[in-house]
Design brief:
Elements (H helix, E strand, L loop, with lengths): L4 E5 L3 H12 L4 E5 L10 H4 L9 E4 L8 E4 L1 H12 L7 H31 L5 H21 L13 H15 L13 H11 L2 H6 L6
Parallel strand pairs: 1-2
Antiparallel strand pairs: 1-3, 3-4
Length: 215
């Protein structure tokens, strides 16, 4: 068994968020590309790590009890790494709760809705006006929520960089780099969001993370 964390991923927003955490936390790891377009996620080897056949996943060789321990689901991985290292998850009870709240907000709302927006506007084999309108409106609503939250703040919960920022920023970045939807969404009008996004993307650890498991 390797002595470093093993990352199984692809440079999608969900994959990038875990790479950001590993880089920012300075955790040694090996990265393994899982090409979902070729069905790598359905191999017996990967299913043994993640029965749900989704990226990303990690295996920590020094998990609970000192034994190898797989962790699936990107939000759960962020929490696991933050608790393991004591980094990017505030000690203060209120700030810790706020961080987890915004992490769950990304997992339950922003990520799925941004994903559906991308599917129906870019990847769907036929254009469905109802779906495009529905998810465009919801993405704009979520951007407005995030923009308001970032008012007067450097990061999502204040002056402290947390795993909530790691979770959200790849999805915001993807609106332009993946979906080419900056103009459609009038992204530049969300000035707090774009300022926060640009600040995070300029961080060396984030720049490195964007290259991990990239096709």
């Amino acid at each position: 068994m390797p002595d470093k964390i093993q990352l199984y991923s692809l440079a999608t927003p969900n994959g990038v968020k875990v790479a950001i955490a590993l880089e920012e936390m300075a955790i040694p790891y090996d990265a393994h590309l899982i090409n979902i377009s070729k069905g790598d996620q359905f191999t017996a080897e990967f299913i043994a790590i993640n029965p749900n056949s989704k990226i990303p996943a990690i295996v920590d060789p020094d998990g609970p009890g000192g034994k190898p321990f797989p962790v699936i689901e990107s939000g759960a991985i962020l929490l696991y790494l933050a608790e393991k290292t004591g980094k990017f998850l505030p000690k203060d009870a209120a700030k810790r709760s706020q961080t987890i709240q915004w992490l769950f907000w990304q997992m339950a709302g922003l990520g799925p809705m941004f994903g559906q927006f991308g599917h129906f506007t870019v990847y769907a084999p036929e254009k469905v006006p109802y779906a495009i309108d529905r998810y465009t409106k919801e993405v704009k609503r979520l951007l407005a929520v995030l923009d308001k939250q970032l008012t007067g703040k450097k990061y999502v919960i204040g002056d402290e960089l947390t795993i909530a920022d790691f979770a959200i920023v790849p999805w915001v970045r993807g609106l332009e780099t993946g979906y080419k939807a900056g103009e459609v969404l009038e992204l530049n009008k969300y000035t707090n969001v774009t300022r926060w996004r640009d600040d995070l993307l300029a961080r060396p650890a984030v720049e490195r993370a964007l290259t991990v498991c990239k096709l």
